[in-house]
Amino acid sequence: MQHTLVALVEDKPGVLNRVASLFRRRAYNIESLTVGHTEQPGISRMTIVVDNDQTNIAHVVSNLYKLVNTIQVTDLGETPTVERDLAMIKVCADNNNRTSIMQLVDVFRARIVDVANDSLIVEITGVEEKINSFVDVLKPFGILEMVRTGIVAMARGNNSPMNYHANGNGNGYKAN
Fold first, then answer.
1. Residue 57: per-residue pLDDT
2. Domain end: 25, 53, 79, which one?
3. 103 near 29, Cβ under 8 Å?
4. Residue ranges of the chain with per-residue pLDDT less than 70
5. Is 161 within the bounds of a domain?
6. What are phi and psi of 22, to 5 degrees?
């Protein structure tokens, strides 16, 4: 089983390295790590997916809070969430199989983002299981290359655990 953590951190050089080092030192495996800017200038959001069976989540959260640049860590394990992953897949496509691939793209609500004489690049967004299923049906055609973003997640509804406002206490933000 996987567990999703969301960490708000200061957008400064070296923060990602410190988080990755924390996991390395404690021999925790990161299944997925996605980092990006937030609506707040100077704040980045990390979505970290770890294997729940081999990781003590409370211990991970506690250790993340020990890092200087960590503002807030939220465990989305019990929270209703919307999760998405994005993949781009380059698949062999010739005159014989191009139509079949295009039909699969429609069925999975993916989209073709590049067409070449011998290949297609397909973009698909959705939950991890949907993307895994799409990859499985494309394998017989020959996958030439694939890249995935990793999971991003957000709590559903208005009661987001990641609400902030300026407070002037040194780090500039405080949980509501």
1. 85
2. 79
3. no
4. 52-55, 159-176
5. no
6. -60, -45
